[in-house]
Every structure is written in C-alpha cells, then in structure tokens.
TrEMBL record:
Residues 50-66 have a biased composition (Basic residues). It comes from Helianthus annuus (Common sunflower). Residues 41-135 are annotated as: Disordered. This is Non-classical arabinogalactan protein 31-like. Keywords: Signal. Residues 67-135 have a biased composition (Pro residues).
Amino acid sequence: MGFRVNLLSLLVLGSCLMINVFGSFDLDHVSWTQAPHLSPLLPPAAAPAPHHHHHKRPGGHHHKPTHPPSVAPVHPPTKAPVHPPTKAPVHPPTKAPVHPPTKAPVHPPTKAPVHPPTKAPVHPPVVAPVHPPTHSPLPVRRKVAVQGMVYCKACKYKGVDTLMGATPLQGAKVLLTCKNNKYPLRVNGTTDKNGFFFIEPPKTLTTFGVHKCKVTLLSSPKATCKHPTNLHYGVKGAILVPTPKPVKSKLPSPPLPYDVFTVGPFAYEASKKIVCPHA
C-alpha cells in the first residue's frame, strides 16, 4: 500500500515537471505582436482524499503514512490559435465594357413625290364682239394755195446756212411743180417788196394731190445776189406744209375757200466770184 502511494506521488510530481517545462517552452513562442488570449482560469481541483487502509502490523502499533503535499495541477493558459491576418482579396479594377459607337441608321433620302404639272384649264379665247366699221366722213376736197418768203443773204455769210443779216428779195421767182400723171402742174410765183410770194390755187390742185407737189427757186433779179442756196430745200424742192390756222380774232372774218400751205423761207447769195466788202 505504501508503494502505491509513493508511486502515485512520483507520477504527480513528474507530471508537474513536464507541465512546467512545456509550459515555459510555449511561452517563449508567444507572438509579441498580439496580446495572448487567456482562457478563464479554472479553480484548482482538489486532490482526491487518500483512502487509508488500516493494517495492523505486528506489535499492535499503527504506522501513520506520510503523504507528500498534493499539488493542484497547474494548467497552462490556453492560447487562442494565432491566425495570420487575412487580407481582402485584391481584385483588378473592373473596366466598364467599351461598346463601339452606335451609328444612327442611314436612311436613303426620301424624295417628294413628283406630281405631273397641272395644266390650267384652257378656255376658248374670248372674242370681242365685232362691230361694223364706222366710216368717218371723207375729207372735203379743197383747193390749195401756196405762200412763202425769199431773202438775199449777207455777203459775209456766203456759204453759211443762216439768214442773219439777210434782206427781203423783191422780184424773185419760185416754181410750184406737181407731178400728177393725169394733170401735170407747173406754176410760177413772184415776190413783192417784202420778199413775200403767194400762188393762187390752181384749178387742178386740191388737197388730195398736194403730197405730190414741191416748190423750188427759179431766178433772182439782183446781179450781186443770184446764186440760189439749198436753205430749207430751196434747190432740191420743199414739200408743202399746212399753215397753222390763225388765232380767232374778235372781228369775224369770212372763211377762205381754200387751204393755205407754206414753204421756205428761201435765200439767194452772192456768187463765189464776187468779193465781199469788209464790214
């Protein structure tokens, strides 16, 4: 019985030594970066009470066994497992998907409908009412008289178509010619002291045939002024122009039985042989 007790004591002591050794070994490996996680200390468990068996030894004396002090098992602090710091997984930056630019659909140009040109309705032309022509009364056939003037030009204006400084030529003769195939006509006229001539109406000359008549210079009585000039067509022939009617006067005058036509004025000048005196 004593041997068993001793053996039990040795086992307890050995276990305590092992705990101390291994416990110190573990403390050396504690990380200094983290605080140790200590588990709650349990109260030391009471050692079981030894069971005494009383054996009587010869001689009648009881031997009181000596027991070593029972030491409560010292449990090392339980450390929480040290896990390495878990890093959040690093994901590469996700790029937004690049879509190609979407082009608007290209529609062919829509052409406006081509309408045929609308023609305006064709209306028949409106014909103005045809009125029968109204005949104006025929002009009255009247006799014709011819008048005019003849001058002698100043010598210094010889060769110039002007009447500046001219004087009336008395006794000058003019010729009225009418080329009518049925009734040819040639009538002379003579100027007075004022250079005026007046040809009475011939019997065969009327207003209907006056457009075929002309008046030309025929002769001059003055030796120093005998060269006819073509002033107002005095040489080639001047046509007959109707004379404007005089303004009505307060005194009534009987109407003339003929129409008066006017020519000229005509002019003679000195010949080239004559030397003009200096003014």
